[in-house]
Design a protein that fits this description.
CATH superfamily of one domain: P-loop containing nucleotide triphosphate hydrolases
Number of helices: 11
Distance between the termini: 33 Å
Number of strands: 16
Helix content: 40-55%
Amino acid sequence: MAEPLRIVSLKTRGFRNLADAEFEPGPRFNVISGDNAEGKSNLLEAVDYLASLRSFRAALPKDMIRRDAAEAEISGIVHGESVPRRFLLRLRREGGRDLQVDGKRPRTRAQYLIAIQTVLFHPGDLELVVGDKERRRAFIDRILEHFDATYVSSLAVYERALRSRNSLLRAESPNRRALAAYHELLASSGAIVGQSRARLIGELAPLALDAFHAISGEPGTLDIRYEPRVTPEVPAIMAALEASIDKDIARGFTAEGPHADEIALSIDGVAAKRYGSQGQHRAIVLALKVAELHQLSRRVGRVPMLLLDDVSSELDRTRNRRFFALLAELGGQVFLTTTQPELILLDRDRTDFVVRSGVIGTR
């Protein structure tokens, strides 16, 4: 059975509006309440940023540094392996960041990401269902980068080559030979990206379906399909790039390749963005998050920390009760923010905190 990852101590300094302090969460359910704009989501952002190196608000590092501080620092002691691990992240106002794991700088970003995992839900995740396909690709990419270093490096190579080719396409007189020089690199890295996504989606689909039934209580079939723009094989991507040169020059960007792939979500064969209510859409998103947690647990042998930002206001009471019953079965450490702690339908293994003006206290 996978061991849960648990933050036993989190320290922040100069981060958002949070007071410079040490936060010691409980091992299971941590209910963090408070009025709006007091700092609840900032606390979740600190935990998630320490694990993912991304802000779920798409903030730049300098935007997360408190106005009166020159830099911000997030550090955590995490249990879940044979010995506790120490993570440190420092953001500098002039740009850049410093990373440490157990007092040493990781060799690569991928090495850091594989060492710690979180699964995050926040209200903006509704865009996974109703938004554009870039959001769904980002969801899949985030899962893969937490256990597949080859995927991380291949995606980075692909994106650099794509930016370079697009830059050439925007030139006044694009050089065809220079454009073609990127095709082999795009095809070899793009094939790895596409094949990795396809395998992951095949593994996620049954997990998401089970979670959707558990949360919604509905008989409908949730289906997740990978729909690549081009078959993710080197010859197919090479051929597509060669065939599209004239059109790419006319439009000024590269149209073919995994950067344009779709991850299609449907309920009973109907596109999910056109199906049902917002409550059903939220049930779909939460099912995807539960599937993500299960998949990461399988792949890394540790249950990720689950971060839920204002989830209680996103579901009706029946789905709310079903979701919290599911959470009780999952294991692992959970952080939930809410303005109404009475809506968090958990009676056991619960630790309550309150946030006021960035100061975290117990209730």
